[in-house]
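Question: I have long wanted to understand how a fold can be written as C-alpha cells. Here is the record:
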Amino acid sequence: MWECKMTVSNMQDYVTIIVADQLFGIPVLEVHDVLRGLKLTKVPLAPVEVAGVLNLRGRIVTAIDLRKRLRLPQLENYENGLSIVVEHNGEPYSLMIDDVGEVLSLDKNELQPTPVTLNACWKDISGGIYRLENELLVILQIERLLDITANSTIAA
C-alpha cells in the first residue's frame, strides 16, 4: 500500500504578518528585515499605497501601506508600526504591517486555491490559503502585491 509521507522538501516556511486582524504569510526566504519605528519621507504624486520612502543602511526603500493596498481600514497612529522588508526586481520595499507573528512550516500539499469568495483585491495578490486551526492564512505573492501600477490611483 502506497503511503504519502511528509518530507522536508514538501515543507514551506512562512513569516506570518497581521494586518487589520487578518493573518497573511510571506515565504521566509523573501523577507530581508523586520523594522520598527519608520521615519518616512512622503513622495509627491505617488500612488496612494506608497506611504513614502526611508533610508535603510544607505539604500532608499519604498514603503507600501498594506492597509491601503488591501483596502482595509486605516490606523489613526502608525508611529510604532512594524515593517517587513522584501525585494522585488532588485529593489527593496518596506511593507507596513500591524504585527509580525511566528514562522510556520507548512506542507505545500495543504495549500488550497484562493477561494472565489475572497475579496477581489486580495484574490489578485493571493498565492492560496492554508486553513489553520482557528483562522485562514492568506499567502501573499510579493510580485503581485507590489504591482501597484495596475491597481492604484494617484494621490492628490
